[in-house]
Amino acid sequence: MNYFKTLVIGYLVSLFVSCGSGNQNPSTLFDISLEGNKQTVQQKDIVGVSIKNVKEKSIQDISYSIDGKLLELNGNKLKISVEKLGNKVLKASFTFDEEIVEISKKIKVLAQNAPELYTYTIINKFPHDNKAFTQGLEFYNDTLYEATGKRGRSFLRSLEYKTGKIIKQVDLDDMYFGEGITILNDKIYQLTWQSKVGFIYDRKEMKKLDNFQYGKSTEGWGLANDGKMLFKSDGTEKIWLLNPDTLVEESYIETVTNSSMFNETNELEYVDGKLYANVWGKAGVMIINATTGAIEGVVNFGGLSKLVTKTPNWLAKDNVLNGIAYHAERKTFFVTGKEWDVLFEVQIHKK
Q1: How far is 254 from 252, CA to CA, in rounded Å?
Q2: Do 131 and 58 fall within a single domain?
Q3: Which residue numbers in the chain have pLDDT < 50?
Q4: N or C of the chain: less Cβ packing under 10 Å?
Q5: Each residue's pLDDT tens digit, 102-122
Q6: Domain that holds residue 71
């Protein structure tokens, strides 16, 4: 009797499995394979590609895409071409058993070229408040605006840059650690670090108009704008693009070199399609393509800290280069650091 039951159960199980396999999701039968099992490619790479087909099923009309854009396919060679670099999903679409099947594979698309090296020439040196823990720096015409950090010491101020004289100042509540700023449409936008809130001020009177909450971005680091959108760094590889009217994070770019993803982008400045970005804790500034995220250049400002007066409380890990602003009329950059007593006017050029 037990033997008979075993036979029946076995038959039913095999029948169930057999019927179930006929309803198997077609996408589970296939996988995208890149030549050399690559997970990382560079922009403009031409790589071998195939569809792993575990049951050797017949498929037709194969196409590949990233971010909804079809990629050029010549035989089994795929040309990688994307608008924004970074973490991507490569999708394959094809016909199988008169059904359209879509499968995907996560890859990283890095920059085509290595960053170029830049250096600088000092044009002028101006006084800077050595109690200002600089987090944001920006010009509006000939007036310099600065935002600082540290709880209990965070403020927003406008300055005469040649003398360091304060024109107006707004102190933040002691609970906030101030971060980057940018000016657009006669409004000043200011970030805080970990409170996930930013502030909007009237530029002329520096009167607070409103607050805004962060979306998916984790923290507030740097801000810049291209005249239409705000760029916001948050200490990750992402730089978010915010609608200045709604403050919604509508999209992002990811910062990459030709060999890796890069994070800890700090203070930002936008000039002619490029983002100039301080690197947290480093004496360097990255030049980032604001459309693709490619790090196209690196400026070494390592010599500047030697020209700064060190206070008794100076800490090398804290009192680092931070703050970069472009003066459109003078066509020069102004840079300083956290609690530095000098504001440097510099020209940046290839090394």
Answers
A1: 7
A2: no
A3: 1-22
A4: N
A5: 999 999 999 999 999 999 999
A6: 24-110
